[in-house]
Amino acid sequence: MKESAIDGQTLCYHCGNECIEELHLVDAKAFCCQGCKSVYEVLEANNLCNYYNYNQHPGANRAIVDARFEYLDNQTIISDLVDYSDDKITIVSFYIPAIHCSSCIWLLEQLNRINPAIHYSRIDFLKKQVTIRFSNAEISLRQVVELLFNIGYEPLISLQDVIKKQDKSDKDNLVQKIAVAGFCFGNVMLLSFPEYFGLSGVEQTFRHFFGWLNVLFCLPVVFYSGTEYFSSAWNNLRNKVLNIDFPLALGIAVLFIRTVTEVYTRTGAGFGDTLCGLVFFLLIGKFVQRKTYHHISFERDYRSFFPVAVSVIESGAEVHIPLSQLQTGQRIIIRHNEIIPADAILLKGEALIDFSFVTGEANPVSKTLGEIIYAGGRQTGQAVEMEVIKPVSQSYLTQLWNNEAFSRKQGKGMEIFSQKVSKYFTIVLLIIAFSTLLYWLPEDYKKGLAAFTAVLIVACPCALALSTPFTMSAALSIFDKNFFYLKNTAIVEHLARINAIVLDKTGTITTGDNKTIRFEGALSGKEKQLIYSACINSSHPLSRMIYTFLKGIERLKTEEYTEVPGQGILAVIDGHYLRVGNSKLVFGRNEDETQLTRVHVLLDNVYLGYFAFTHQYRPGLENIGYLAPDYNLFLLSGDQDHEKYELLKFFKDQDAMRFNQSPQEKLNFINSLQRSGATVMMIGDGLNDAGALKQSDLGVALTDNVNNFSPGSDAILDGRSLIKLPVFLKFSKDAVRIIYLSFLISLTYNIIGLSYAVTGNLSPVVAAILMPLSTATIISFTSIATHVAAKRRKLI
């Protein structure tokens, strides 16, 4: 049992507050109020008292127990709060201000042990957010909130976007820390100038006064602006992890302690300017990195994904608009295998929705007319018409891009350079620092301490911490301007390591806007209606070409619809049985070799003819062929091999092209390349290629004007920018080289500084010059070099 009495005070076992007005005893443990006692009893009853082993007095005070959550029985309010709901489960996210330690995380992720109706709960510690999935039949939303309240974690509920507001407050807090550090840095530098240039006899009286002023300016920098580095270092040490935050925190602590010591003993001016400058530049780097992450998180950058469009009905005609322009009240068309981009009401058609991206359950769910369908589901049947009821930014889809359900398979988590180096850098730095201390200690302990602190000051890895965020931020902005959207900064380094490139054919290296299409045979008006009504349900590039070719025809009711990946469409429309697809689907066999791509039509077992396509390859496709010496190029296609001889001018080797490939065969081919040691990038349209995209080391979904956003991809590429792929690959290597060079520059500074620091003769002036000079050099070099590299590659 933990001690609950300190210096004669009786402390609450749960929250740590002093028991003054009330004292409740349970199991020889003291509690300050009935609320804290109740929380302990709930935990004890469910064998969850390990909660108290992670931290001493981890709970929030529970003296206020009167709360009313009756409003959570209101269905309108519930629909505004939940992320997803169907007849079985509900998923909801809450912002919980009381989350503050590892005990909170442990307890909140054990909610299913308190109530089995809760399937799981996941914590985002930085956002103080919990995501809960529960069974509707066994527990209500109100009961979930009351359970959280009863164990001391009351959610902050608002019908406005609470979680996004919390994100904003986090960013503002960082800005405040930067402002404080910058203000103190400027003033400390000003007060330190007389020390740098020498003080006259008259001015010597101000020396000690200026020193204490510097200490005062250092206090908010260390105990406000720099606290995150100390907490990060401590948490990592507790988890037996040594990362770059440890030497940073150690350097800040040493700088502060030595500054206070020198000013107090009047033996020097200290390192206040160096300390404030270090924290200021580190926070600037963190701000740039956070801006980068917010820029690439789907919650924000769906506005930038204007190539990812949605089909909207306006004035009776279908138009494609950017997803960012989709508004409440607009009517949208969702075709087979497309993702629903926003919460909407079903108006027309039969919806059979696959919510596996949201719930993990693969069985499609049937929806009826007038029913709300949540964003993130994928339509698996015929095309449906829906009316948007909630903006994209407020739908569950905004969480999918970074959802743990789409975490990469083993082999995806390639370690980036800064992660590799930081471990070794930290170990080497500590070895040098403590070796220096041990060397000088027997001879002169003052000199030993001075040398020890000097090593930590000079070799503080701020440049290493800053080089990656500044370089990658600049690189991502360049990629964005060229319509290439990467999921996170690590993808830039992964892109640089690629040595094998696999491309899909239809819709990837060919374009649906510039094909010549004709029908060999005769079609009546009724037959055209039937074909149009079947093809409009599909998002396949050839289907889009057919229904565009037949546009202006009235659509008939689709009674049954099935799309066979890589083969075609089976449908029953207005009582007629229709097959539209390749020869294998229509005739049951592969057709003879031909130079044309054909889509055959079989109506009520009567062959009507075929659509013939003359493919127009994307402009500049020959540039892809030039990658062959440095990269292994492959083509995977679900079509027949009609164009293999024409494609030889791009891919050079006939063995590198594989046709008649099913989605599973594509995935297996990627897997075989990886087993042979290749690092594979797959570029596909994000639909039939979804499995291959996820299996590859770097999956790129290519899009023109169709809503084929695939959460299984690492990047989205606008079709018009495929021509720039060789340049993108070279630029990614340039970005990685810039990080390497910035590290070498930092290492050069460290070697020069260390050679002087180990002697114990490093003066504040030298440290004040070396540290900001190193940091400013790194920031300037990475930003300028990245833009120079982009200009050399003609990306800006």
Instruction: Provide the β-strand percentage band.
Output: 15-25%
Q: Can you tell me the CATH class of the domain at 483-511 and 618-733?
A: Alpha Beta
Question: Which blocks of ≥5 consecutive residues have pLDDT under 50?
Answer: 1-6, 62-67, 159-171, 292-308, 396-413, 706-711
Number of helices: 26
DSSP strand count: 30
Tell me the radius of gyration: 32 Å
Name the shape in a single word.
Answer: globular
Q: What is the CATH fold-level name of the domain at 483-511 and 618-733?
A: Rossmann fold
**Helix proportion:** 40-55%
Q: State the CATH architecture of the domain at 483-511 and 618-733.
A: 3-Layer(aba) Sandwich
What is the CATH superfamily of the domain at 483-511 and 618-733?
HAD superfamily/HAD-like
Integer average pLDDT: 75
What can you tell me about this protein's structure?
The structure is a single chain. The protein is of the alpha+beta class. Helix content is 44%, strand content 18%. Among the domains are: 1-66, no CATH class; 70-157, Alpha-Beta Plaits (2-Layer Sandwich), CATH 3.30.70; 302-402, Calcium-transporting ATPase, cytoplasmic transduction domain A, CATH 2.70.150.10; 483-511 and 618-733, Rossmann fold; 516-614, Calcium-transporting ATPase, cytoplasmic domain N, CATH 3.40.1110.10. It has a 7-stranded mixed sheet. A 6-stranded antiparallel sheet has the order 10-9-11-17-12-15, with no helix packed on it. A 6-stranded antiparallel sheet has the order 20-25-24-23-22-21. Helix 8 (204-225) runs antiparallel to helix 10, helix 11 packs parallel to helix 26 (764-792) and helix 16 packs antiparallel against helix 25 (725-757). It starts with a strand and ends with a helix. Mean pLDDT is 75; it is low at 1-6, 62-67, 159-171, 292-308, 396-413 and 706-711.
